[in-house]
């Protein structure tokens, strides 16, 4: 019950904030933190504020969409 309440609180918090930590952005996109690190090495946008890396939901979504490929028939 407590775990569910904490998870709900985290989900609500990540839905309202435009920039998230690596752990939060990984949860938001449903991937592991190592995937976020890998994506950043491939050029995914990362904001650095006072030495802290922050990840923008909108900019990462746009970056991912730019990586989509059309299937050939």
From TrEMBL:
InterPro entries: DNA-bd_dom_put_sf (IPR009061), WH-like_DNA-bd_sf (IPR036388). Gene3D superfamilies: Winged helix-like DNA-binding domain superfamily/Winged helix DNA-binding domain. This is Prophage DNA packaging protein NU1. It comes from Lactobacillus gasseri SV-16A-US.
